[in-house]
Specification:
By secondary structure, the protein is of the alpha/beta class. Helices cover 39% and strands 22% of the residues. The structure holds adenosine-5'-diphosphate (ADP) and magnesium ion.
């Protein structure tokens, strides 16, 4: 896979900003005073050991859970108190760490459930020249088919999700998220459980979507995948934001290295390999 990324996006406008965001669950601080900036059209990694607060951060951005303090803005608008459906309509959509698909549905039906949530202004809407007034089921089915084609499942529209491999279900979930017409896509543990071929396919899909203008935040434990894909990375540890930077910055950051020491999932990739990945990421095309 070509690991290089464009550096021209580093000055792109900010699409998402978390300012001093905290979420408490009783005495536990799941997300602790986190500030983070994501720029339009970039692939941004959010990493950290298990329990670091990554999924909770996605919940806070997508509106599934309320902040204890701090603020979230999207496209310059304060969305801190906006409910989930309004955030979806504004263009924020996430996938989940564990599959939440309705297993008896076909891939097409699943993606159509996303079409029903479609706002009026997403990148994908304009990509397929559909516009915002789509009400009719046939148009939705056509759009869902096009999205399944985009994720490489154009020949699986009538396949029940229950019969699909884990990797393909992941792709269906992404197609469903795309059907909501997002400007910002949050992918939680997007490559976990995938084989190398599936992982590569998901990586290529993410690149394609970003090159079409979508902004993507990726949570993933596979460091080779994250370092090869992301332009900027935010690292959480015990809820706190311990580093922000390019892959090259992150792999040489002492606090990050210490946070991961003894963590087999990160150590599955030797540090030399992380450096090699970061070096190739940093090189221009
Ligand atoms: N709904 C909840 N109620 C109580 N504790 C929670 C809840 N959701 C997450 N947590 C806790 O918050 C911390 C961060 O969890 P999470 O965001 O899932 O971490 P990650 O996704 O980085 O593995 C963990 O200690 C987890 O047990
Ligand atoms: Mg998680």
């Amino acid at each position: 896979m070509n690991n290089s990324v464009s550096s021209s996006t580093s000055t792109a406008p900010v699409i998402l900003e978390l300012k001093n965001v905290t979420r408490r669950f009783g005495g536990l601080i799941a997300v602790n005073d986190v500030s983070m900036v994501v720029r339009t059209g970039t692939i941004h990694g959010l990493i950290g050991p298990n329990g670091a607060g990554k999924s909770t951060a996605f919940d806070l951005i997508s509106g599934l859970t309320a902040l204890s303090s701090g603020s979230v803005s999207f496209n310059g608008r304060d969305i801190t108190r906006l409910p989930v459906d309004a955030r979806v309509a504004a263009g924020i959509c996430r996938t989940f760490q564990t599959s939440r698909l309705f297993e008896k549905m076909t891939a097409l039906e699943v993606v159509m459930t996303g079409c029903h949530l479609h706002g009026s202004t997403g990148i994908l809407g304009s990509m397929f020249s559909i516009g915002g007034k789509m009400r009719d089921e046939m148009q939705m089915a056509a759009r869902a088919r096009a999205l399944l084609e985009t994720v490489g499942l154009g020949d699986q529209t009538e396949t029940p999700v229950v019969g699909m491999s884990y990797g393909k279900r992941r792709l269906v979930e992404i197609a469903r998220a795309l059907a909501t017409g997002p400007r910002l896509l949050l992918l939680d543990e997007v490559a976990s459980g995938l084989n190398p071929v599936e992982t590569e396919a998901v990586g290529l899909l993410i690149r394609k979507l970003a090159s079409d203008g979508l902004t993507i935040v990726v949570v993933e434990h596979d460091m080779r995948f994250v370092m090869g894909l992301c332009e900027q990375i935010t690292v959480l540890n015990f809820g706190a934001n311990i580093a922000n930077g390019t892959p090259a910055d992150i792999v040489s950051n002492q606090e990050v290295i210490e946070a991961y020491l003894g963590r087999p999932r990160m150590n599955a990739v030797p540090r030399r390999e992380l450096r090699r990945q970061a070096a190739s990421t940093a090189q221009p095309n």
